[in-house]
Structure formats: C-alpha cells, structure tokens
C-alpha cells in the first residue's frame, strides 16, 4: 500500500513555475497581463491553476456599465450647489433647445426694434401750447417774456434737400440778393419740385456762376447732392434721425456749419429742443434775462438753459424777440430781414416788421453770416 502511494506520487508531474507577466514594451503602464485564479475542486483536494487573460486596454469592457461622472454646478436661481449627471436627459435637452431658441428670438427682436426717440415737431397740433405751458412753469423770468410776445408759428414745411439748398444759397448775402439768386436757381431747375440731387449735379459751375452763385457755393451744392446720390443722406433719413445724429451727419456737408444746422432743425424740421449755443442773439438774450455781467460762453449755455428742456427751441425764439425789443437785432432776425451786417438804417426799422418777416421766412435757409464752424 505504501509502495502504491509512492508510485503515484512519483508519477505526478512536478509543478511548473508561474511565468512572469510583464507589460510589453512601449505600452501604457495600465495595460498588463491580468492573472485570474481559476479554482477546480476534486474529491480529495483543491488544485489551483492560473490562466492568462488577454491584455486589458484603457477602455472598460462593454459588459461593465460606465458610471456617469457627477458634475457639481451652481444653480443660477438660488446659488445652491446642485449635482447633475454629465449625460443629459431628453427633457433637459428639450429645455435647453427651447431656451436657446428663446434667446435667439429676443436678440433678433432687439436688433430689429432699435429704440429711437424723436419728439413731436412743433408744427404738430397743440405742441406749441404745450411748450409754452412748460416754459411758464419752468422759468419765472422767461414767463414774463411769454406774456408780452405773441406765440411762435411753425406751419410751412419744405423737403430737407430743398431747405438745405436754400440755406447754402443765402449764405453771406442780404435777403434781397439771396432771393434774386434763389429765384434764378429755381428757374434753372424747372421749379422747386425740380430741385433734386440729380438736377443739381447736372448743373455746371459755369451755369451756376451765370446766375450769381460763387464757385465755392457751387462746390457746396454739389457736395450736398453727391451725399444724397451716394445714400449717405436722404430726406427720409433726415426726418427720422435723432438730433445728435442729424447734427453729425449734416456738418459733414461742405459749407454747412453748426449754426446752419441749428437753424435748419428749428425752422425747417420744427424740432422742439434745439439750443443754438453759438448764436449771438440767444447768448445775448440769456445774459439780459439773468442779468449776467458777461456774455455766457457756448460751453455754459447748456447748463444755464437746462430747465427749458424739452422745448429749448421755443425758448430760443422768445430770446430772439427779447433781444430785438432791446434794440439789438438778433442774428436770426437780422438774417431773415436780409442784414448781413448791422446797418443804421436797418436798425431803425420797426420791430414788428422784422418779426413779421421772420414768421414769413421761418422755412428759408438762413445765412451763416458770422459763424460757419
């Protein structure tokens, strides 16, 4: 019996040493041969064998489910930390798409509907009356002027291109001379309806010189017409532009300065809140109204006249009348009456005559006789 047992022991193969498992060269350290023990039971004892498994890559086997990472984020509503899965659900996708679409629509609406605030013109019904009520309540000194002068009128209206053309033609001219040249210019264009950019550009400097227009003014007229033809300016754009943008665009035209733009805005477009800070008559009126020792500088005018907003055009109109009543014709009144420079015989004219001429010519281009900035 002992011999049989020894014989069986001798016949059994000697256990072989386990092979060393080393990762192949140039392979990531996470890739190695995995040794998985496999247990087989027998009746008498348990024998453990080892089996080599194929190298394991960095990606997990498809049979093992991937646990989603948890992302910590801050709620935009209440500032509380929330944890959400990196894999969005169908409902979250729909909500995100809906919010993105809503933001896109809001941005498009904001682009299409740019806020533009343009006050009602003074020629609108009841606007002058509203301006007078506001000025009476805002300034006691100005209220005294309103009581002794008739209200302004803003009835007539020409197209912006025609009004700007007239403004250029009347520059540096007495009223009578300017009217004579303007009449010949209208005849050359075939009437006021024919004063359009194409017609003005077709007129040569020689043709304009024959009717009394200087070469410099001819270049001003052509520059204005070219800006219309190129689309830089248009009647509809001028009418709908806010005051600041309009001032910037019109002063780009050769021969049109800040004083001309202010006169155009008041007497042609009937803008209610224009303060001609460079106008000598308005500055002199402010000095007299508030008993100032010196003539206010243009930089001081905005601060002194702030209380008149949003009807500074009407306040300026009363200041012109105030200065005229003191015996010193204002620039606007003198220009409307045809006085390029003050002359004794013109200063002796009756004030009502000057004022009537202003009312009849409020839509005319005014003469930049002392300021052409």
UniProtKB/TrEMBL annotation:
InterPro entries: Alkylbase_DNA_Glycosylase/TA, DNA_glycosylase, HhH-GPD_domain
Residue span, HhH-GPD domain: 169-324
Keyword DNA damage: yes
Start and end residues of each stretch annotated as Disordered: 1-112
Keyword DNA repair on entry: yes
GO process annotations (BP): base-excision repair, AP site formation; DNA alkylation repair
GO cellular component: nucleus; protein-DNA complex
Biased amino acid composition, Low complexity: 1-13
Ranges of biased composition (kind: Polar residues): 39-61, 80-90, 103-112
Coiled-coil region: none
Gene Ontology MF annotations: alkylated DNA binding; DNA-3-methyladenine glycosylase activity; DNA-7-methylguanine glycosylase activity
Pfam families: HhH-GPD (PF00730)
Keywords carried by this UniProt record: DNA damage, DNA repair
UniProt family annotation: Belongs to the alkylbase DNA glycosidase AlkA family.
PANTHER family: DNA-3-METHYLADENINE GLYCOSYLASE
Protein name as it appears in the record: HhH-GPD domain-containing protein
Lineage of the species this protein comes from: Eukaryota, Viridiplantae, Streptophyta, Embryophyta, Tracheophyta
